[in-house]
Amino acid sequence: MKAYHRFIWIIVCCSWFNCLLAQTDKGSVKDTVKIRKHDPRIATRRSAIIPGWGQAYNREYWKIPLVYGVLAIPASLYFYNNSWYKKTKFAYEALYKASLPVNPDSSMLKDIDPQLKTLSIGSVQSYRNAFRRDRDYSILWFIIAWGLQVADATVFGHLKQFDISNDLSMEWSPKLDPVTRTPGLGFTLNLKNSSSRRLVDVR
Question: What is the DSSP letter of 109?
Answer without folding.
Answer: G
